[in-house]
Amino acid sequence: MTYKIITVQRHIMDTQRRYPQARGEFSDLLSQIILAAKVIYREVSKAGLSDVLGATDDINVHGERVMKLDKFANTVMIRALDHGGHLCIMASEENEDPIPIPEEYPSGKYVLLFDPLDGSSNIAVNVSVGSIFSIHRKISSGKRGKLEDLLQPGYKQAGAGYIIYGSSTMLVFSTGVGVHGFTLDPSVGEFLLSHENMQIPESGAIYSCNEGYFNSWSPGVKEYILQMKQNATAENKSASLRYTGSMVADIHRTLLYGGIFLYPGQVAGPAPKPEGKLRLLYECAPMAYLIEQAGGRASDGLRRILDIAPDSLHQRVPFFAGSSLNVLEVERLIREEQA
Ligand code: AHG
Ligand code: MN
Ligand code: MN
Fold it and tell me: Which Gene3D superfamilies match (predicted)?
């Protein structure tokens, strides 16, 4: 064996030694997120066997049917994290209102926002799903967290990451000193360092979007996709379309191979959704933080995602993220269409 075996906790401690400005203080909080992820992984990995597939009778705040595993993953995240003493408030895709820390538990200096299960409609067909998290510092006065702690712009994140439950289970996270990936070794139950300092290529030929919505997109977005195909052909290498419908899986591939992930606003058609589908605080902002930390770029077409000051918990935003040259080009075409 030629490689070192490094757990997440050990990696955080090493990073802190090398970079005194690195934030090792929430290694314990991360351990609780990891525990929740392992419990979710256990259920996801035997999804076809136990009675966890299918829908509940509930409709969530976004008007979407809640799958059994969404509900399970949400409960696991809340129960694993509400009593650790590090958090003062939480928010989840599945809860309309902020989730307070129960009075009987101590309140801490961090704020957690999460999507407990991303891509859950893919579980029944055995396609990768994930969990996404975003960590902020408490800014409000008083002991317990408030809505203002949750509504902070993404550039203020103290850390962010995702867990992908795929052909292997991986944790990818950043605390502001690069992006690092850890693969779960199920036989020992530990996430071990497998992808240190992930860097996204400067440009890429893979585009990842639901092209079925093409007719509803604005002219600049349409032009970008058409151009992507033409340019790639001109360079004598074809563009590739890759889209699983699980953002965690699509962003994971984009981080590793480069290219662009996009979920634009739908501006034309019978049911326009100009803000698109993805949620700013617990989907786009944490992914934008990781993409930027890996050297890429993320925007809503006009603004840097991390600069957007949120005005509500479940706010949606158009999302373009990936290799910097790809995202710059789609931004240029969107600006041109507005001119
Ligand atoms: P969630 O399962 O948390 O509701 O998120 C699903 C999201 C995201 O993972 C994916 O990129 C997108 O929905 C897919 O939407 P379309 O089916 O409209 O392409
Ligand atoms: Mn999601
Ligand atoms: Mn979800």
Answer: 3.40.190.80, Fructose-1,6-Bisphosphatase, subunit A, domain 1
